[in-house]
Design a protein that fits this description.
Helix content is 83%, strand content 0%. The protein is built from four helices and no strands. It holds the Pfam family ATPaseInh_sub_z.
Length: 103
């Protein structure tokens, strides 16, 4: 294998690893958001709701904020879009840090 092919392979491997970490962080962070939302709404099955939120993040990531807003509204809990968005970013960042720390 030539040096150029080795370098190309290394870059492809790096890109794949970064994509994998990003995916795992978004799923883990979404579960954290789901737990926070479930506790805030006073739901009984926190983990089931967290899994639902994580699946929503994977299937339709652009609709997660809208879904959480609707769920809070249905539960009669007032939470601003800015707070929800802030929590999403905070938990995804925390999940990324945990993954890099090997947790």
């Amino acid at each position: 294998m030539t040096a150029l092919k080795k370098r190309a392979q290394a870059l492809e491997n790096q890109f794949a690893r970064q994509a994998e970490i990003q995916f795992k962080a978004r799923v883990r962070g979404s579960k954290m958001v789901g737990r926070w939302a479930a506790y805030t709404m006073g739901l009984d099955d926190v983990e089931a709701y967290a899994r639902t939120v994580a699946v929503k993040q994977v299937v339709e990531p652009h609709r997660l904020l809208e879904q959480l807003r609707q769920d809070f509204s249905s539960a009669g809990v007032a939470v601003s879009d800015a707070d929800i968005d802030s929590r999403i970013h905070q938990f995804i960042e925390q999940a990324t840090d945990e993954i890099f720390a090997g947790q």
